[in-house]
Amino acid sequence: MMIIALESYHYLHTSPYLLQVSMLEIYNETIRDLLAPNKSSAIENGTSGKQYVIKHDANGNTHVSDLTIVDVRSTREVSYLLDKAAQSR
User: Fold this and answer.
1) Alpha-carbon gap, residue 21 to 5, rounded angstroms
2) Which pLDDT belongs to residue 89?
């Protein structure tokens, strides 16, 4: 299962929005960061390299700690990240 999170924030100077992308996989109750720059988040020898924490805030939003967050400015960048995440699976 791959989950894609897009978060938008009001950006004051050059663009009305800043989009950020994080991608993760949850498999056998293990979370993997699919955009991690190295393989430290990959499952090795049956154990995960990094522990992530899922948190829910008062507004009903769900956050996963320490995921890689990438700023994107075009659909081309999103498409590239989708390909990169698919290769990490």
Assistant:
1) 6
2) 83
Cα–Cα separations (whole angstroms), residue 85 to 39, 57, 58, 72 = 12, 26, 30, 15
Spatial distance between the Cα atoms of 9 and 52, rounded to a whole number of angstroms: 23
Of 85, 34, 26, 86, residue with least CA distance to 54:
26
Query: Which residue type, as a one-letter code, is found at position 62?
Result: T
Q: What is the pLDDT of residues 41-66, one digit of tens each?
A: 444 434 556 788 889 999 988 889 98
**pTM given for the model:** 0.67
Which amino acid makes up residue 38? N
pLDDT in tens, 6-32: 555 444 455 677 788 999 998 888 889
Listed in sequence order, the residues at least 6 apart from 10 whose beta carbon sits closer than 8 Å to its beta carbon are: 16, 17, 18
Q: d(Cα 89, Cα 77) in Å, to the nearest integer?
A: 19
Q: How far apart are CA 3 and CA 35, in angstroms?
A: 12
